[in-house]
Amino acid sequence: MSGRRSILLLGGSSQQVVAIERAHSLGYRTVLCDYLPDNPGQHVADVFYLVSTTNREAVLEVARQEGVSGVLAYASDPAAPTAAYVAQEMNLAGNPLESVETLSEKHRFRAHLRKIGLPCPNFAEIPVDASGGEAAGLLGDLTFPIVLKPTDSSGSKGVTVVKEAGSLESALAEARAHSRNGVLIGEEFIERSYPNVIGGDVFVVGGEIQFWGLMDCLREARGGGMVPIGEMLPCSLDLMALGRVKSALQKLVSSLGIVGGELNVEVIIGRSGEPYILELGARAGGNMIPVQLSDASGCDLIASNVLCAMGENPLVPAWDASTSGAVCAHVVLHAREAGRFHSVGYGKLDQYVYREVLYKKPGDHVDAFMDAGNAIGIAFMKFPDAELMRERLFGNSESLCMEVE
After folding, report:
1. Which contacts (CB < 8 Å, 24+ apart) does range 388-393 have?
2. Is residue 19 predicted with pLDDT exceeding 80?
3. pTM value?
């Protein structure tokens, strides 16, 4: 074993390779766990173990065997509780395990929001083996439409907007297919006063949110508009309403005893202007959100994640996307129909693209885009002003689905 300090990284997907590479550049020895034998991260890490990132005891055994000094579940919801468990058992830097588990399971998260007095949709827990009739009984007074989802999935997997009781069976089947803990949730569909979901990431330092990377989400129209296909900044929510969002997020962070690290955010604004925190992921955002925010802020958030996991100063400045002057976006490249990948056409967006990251090469099979797992890659864009950006991204919906030839 090298004399360098080692970091354990949980997950070696295309989106997670950047964290392995950054750990290397910071001088750390990298140990990777992933359950997929063909993950690209294994070719970058110093040591690779074919171990599921959700198997806490197996990952802990690897961590002890390798004598790691830190553990990071970069951009991975399922691995976040495992990282917190290993950190707890080995007395490494990290957030409280119970708090990470609360953030990682939607039924526990909703109950916590209700407990601390933050806006929360009405919800009901549903056993994974419930029939449509049983689910309807458990939903009780909730009126359609409702959102049915697994409580421990990520990337919009298994999420369905159910408009009538007759659609419950198919929605249950979809949620079951992506559930690991055997608990589903049905919750009221919140009507929004602000048209966009507010997404992005925040970074906590010493228990306080210091970095505010809040952005407007772009959503795929199919599937009820539930699947993220990108984000853009600045968020166009007015400053007073944005202040309410920030206050709610800080209250939640403080209530859970979160001490540090990057967190992924998903918030909607209800009809009366109240912020509903739908998600606060205990990890950096997927779809390369940290890369976009690093470009916009000048702060290397990937390095900050690694440093934080290693118990070092993450070197995160006080920064706010809403006042930064940055006008940029990233879009998930995807296909609406399955086929063979050939190339990507940007149409009217071509002149604004400054970086393209592809997960597929010509000739590879691509699936129709249903969730984050079907992405072809990510395109990063800069615009001269926010009005033009919104006109291009919202006003030309045909540009949002990247055509695959």
Report:
1. 389/232, 389/327, 389/328, 389/329, 389/352, 390/232, 390/236, 392/348, 392/349, 392/352, 393/218, 393/230, 393/232, 393/329, 393/331, 393/349
2. yes
3. 0.93
